[in-house]
Write a structure and sequence with these properties.
The complex is a heterodimer. By secondary structure, chain A is an alpha/beta fold. Helix content of chain A is 36%, strand content 22%. Chain A has two domains: 2-110, Rossmann fold; 111-261 and 286-309, Dihydrodipicolinate Reductase, domain 2, CATH 3.30.360. A seven-stranded mixed beta sheet of chain A has the order 11-10-6-9-8-7-12. A three-stranded parallel beta sheet of chain A has the order 3-4-5, with helices on both faces. In chain A, strand 8 (196-204) and strand 9 form a beta hairpin. Chain A starts with a helix and ends in a 5-residue tail after the last strand. Chain B is α/β, with parallel strands linked by helices. Chain B has two domains: 3-119, NAD(P)-binding Rossmann-like Domain (Rossmann fold, 3-Layer(aba) Sandwich), CATH 3.40.50; 123-283 and 312-329, Dihydrodipicolinate Reductase, domain 2 (2-Layer Sandwich), CATH 3.30.360.10. The two termini of chain B are 36 Å apart. The chains are: A alpha/beta, B alpha/beta. The interface between A and B is medium-sized, with 35 and 33 residues.
Chain lengths: 314, 334
């Protein structure tokens, strides 16, 4: 994810990447090379040597808290990759550290910056679909390989519910409001290696029902889909449909076919503008906290075999 | 060799399609029909060029087999006398609205020796048959879960009367996928959790639900889970009647089954409406031919009364879960 963010920053003129720190020196050097910045073996060395206003944290999830708290204590703004933290207590400590009106926190719930998802939210809010009844989503990804294989360590990543489906949970809560009740089934607890799968049912306070599928270790390319059925209209979007460009050629490599700005670039540019202007971000820290609560409630539901009542926002 | 076959009631929307098949099938000698609604009976008999019998008894005295398409609640009323009269029965799903009725039907079949089959035509679709083979071949590794849908439009008439239909979308659609899960994966359903509501325009019954089922037994999927979305979430102007989809995810492969996929897509410039039409195999024809072969050869195939009862028990567990938001163990009657 660090590389994705560095690519995005390269297109945001307001940002100067001054240093890249990674416990793996080769990664630090590679990242610094991408950004035209200096590599550091640790965060402490980086901030000791450079003047840093904003820290972009792409650490394994369970390590978010320590660095976020340190940066907040030093008065630096933090852009934190989602999920906000691995546990609700960690998330609460992070929120508290940024609640004093000083440094600010921005959590990277990037789905809020995908034009098609923004379009869905706009249509729902404009009433074009009528009363929302049943929403179906699916998000499937090959298994990711991170530092020390941390995605495969459930205690660090939280599995498909905390790392992948939190995207859909956040989008659905953003669009349809708070969630009353969660019921989930998944393979968590089975001894699968580098594989996770879950089906989640959400019941919203406003009444709607959502069915969320997540597959980590999917044996095909990453994909997502969503269908929203309302009393007046039904809409769907599916990433497996042909995109704006499809190149079939034996002679050329497929170029980056994403037209315009990537969602990551939109997201990071928005956060940077919020820092510069004191504008409220599209993703507030509380939103990231609530999204994690949904992921953890789904996890709890799988463990208990019962629905878990969230009962609105905390 | 063809079987003398009749139809009892045209209350169900599938009845005309079955009648059209029976009129053309080599295996069938479509003799006539009866209907408690005498006007409807006369009209349908005229339309299909068959005799209209005044009552069920006179029809059952003439035919070897009957297809029952009455309202869900009236299945037992129409099926049991046929079985006792020595007439083999194919009954529209669900088998009944209560466990007692289903039990009485199964008992009547056993006592009389007459065959009783439930209309689960999805079992005959080539993609479903092939999917079952793919599971047998273990091509997906270990099964993780099944994500299924059977969407539709809101029907009319008695389908919206909970007394006659036994419920709404959950009763109407769940049984199809519940039967496919049991049949394809060789499992029973241990428990069901359901969120049930009405959003799309029904007044007295539900039109939306998400069911989560825990699977039990068999060689592939013991202890795994499945979801069923039986919602009537396709509106009146939707380009097609709905869908049946199954996504079977395994450790090494994922199989998406969409038997009605790749329709002809038409756009009508005058009505400004799109419509999608299916051009594949006629599942009703495959099912009816199989039923009549089973009658002719005294070798029943297809879904049994017990299969129908098991599907009904899953629906009843879903309704119970929808009431208090607790997962319900499926009560399997012996």
């Amino acid at each position: 994810m660090g590389g994705v963010h560095l690519n995005a920053y390269a297109n945001i003129p307001e940002v100067e990447v001054v240093g890249v720190a990674d416990a793996n020196w080769e990664s630090a050097v590679a990242g610094a090379g991408m950004a035209g910045a200096r590599p550091y073996a640790s965060y402490d060395e980086l901030v000791a040597a450079e003047e840093v206003e904003v820290v972009d944290v792409c650490l394994p999830t369970a390590l978010h808290k320590d660095l976020a708290l340190k940066a907040a204590g030093e008065g630096r703004h933090v852009i934190l990759e989602k999920p906000i933290a691995r546990t609700i207590d960690d998330a609460r400590e992070i929120l508290d550290a940024f609640s004093g009106g000083g440094p600010r926190l921005f959590v990277g719930h990037v789905v809020r910056f995908f034009p098609e998802y923004v379009g869905i939210k706009d249509k729902i809010e404009a009433g074009e679909l009528g009363t929302i009844g049943v929403v179906r989503t699916s998000r499937r990804s090959p298994f990711l390989t991170g530092w020390n294989d941390w995605y495969a360590d459930w205690r660090v990543s939280g599995g498909v519910l905390v790392d992948l489906l939190i995207h859909d949970f956040d989008f659905l809560r953003w669009t349809l409001g708070n969630i009353e009740r969660v019921y989930a089934r998944g393979v968590q607890g089975h001894e699968y290696n580098r594989l996770d799968y879950a089906l989640v049912t959400l019941r919203f306070e406003g009444g709607a029902i959502a069915h969320v599928e997540g597959h980590w270790g999917y044996p095909g390319p990453f994909n997502y889909s969503i269908e929203v059925a309302g009393s007046r209209a039904i809409l769907s979007a599916d990433s497996t449909e042909p995109a704006t460009m499809n190149l079939i050629s034996s002679r050329a490599e497929a170029p980056d076919l994403v037209s315009g700005k990537s969602p990551y670039e939109r997201e990071l540019a928005h956060f940077v503008r919020c820092i510069a202007t004191e504008e409220e971000p599209v993703v507030k820290p509380d939103d990231a906290y609530e999204a994690l609560r949904i992921s953890l409630a789904a996890t709890e539901s799988i463990v208990k075999g019962e629905p878990v009542t969230l009962g609105g926002q905390r | 060799m063809s079987v003398r076959v009749g139809m009892a009631s045209f209350a169900h929307v599938h009845a005309p399609a079955y009648a059209a098949v029976l009129g053309n099938l080599d295996e069938a000698d479509f003799v006539g029909l009866t209907d408690a609604d005498a006007n409807r009976g006369r009209e349908e008999a005229e339309r299909f060029g068959v005799r209209c019998f005044e009552d069920a008894d006179s029809l059952y005295g003439t035919v070897e087999a009957v297809v029952v398409c009455s309202e869900n609640k009236n299945h037992a009323r129409d099926v049991i006398p046929a079985l006792h009269g020595g007439v083999h029965v194919l009954c529209e799903k669900p088998i009944s609205t209560t466990v007692d009725d289903a039990r009485a039907i199964i008992d009547a079949s056993e006592a009389s020796g007459s065959q009783f089959r439930v209309a689960f035509p999805l079992r005959y679709l080539p993609s479903i048959v092939r999917a079952k083979e793919i599971l047998r071949e273990r091509s997906l590794g270990r099964i993780l879960a099944v994500n299924g849908t059977n969407h539709g439009q809101i029907p009319g008439g008695w389908f919206l009367d909970p007394e006659l239909a036994g419920g709404g979308a959950v009763m109407d659609h769940t049984v199809h996928l519940a039967d496919l899960l049991r049949w394809m994966l060789d499992v029973e359903i241990r428990s069901v959790y359901a969120e049930i509501d009405s959003f799309f325009g029904t007044a007295d019954t539900e039109d939306a639900a998400i069911l989560t089922l825990e699977l039990e037994g068999g060689p592939f999927a013991d202890g795994t889970f499945a979801s069923i979305d039986p919602s009537w979430s396709r509106g009146e102007g939707y380009p097609t009647w709905g869908d049946v989809t199954l996504r079977i995810s395994g450790t090494t492969g994922v199989l998406d089954v969409d038997p009605f996929a790749r329709p002809l897509r038409t756009f009508d410039h005058e009505t400004r409406a799109p419509s999608w039409s299916y051009t594949g195999e006629d599942m009703n024809e495959l099912m009816l031919a199989d039923f009549l072969r089973g009658v002719a050869e005294d070798d029943p195939t297809g879904a049994s009364g017990l299969d129908g009862l098991r599907a009904l028990e899953i629906v009843l567990a879903a309704y119970a879960s929808g009431e208090d938001h607790e997962p319900k163990k499926v009560k399997r009657t012996v």
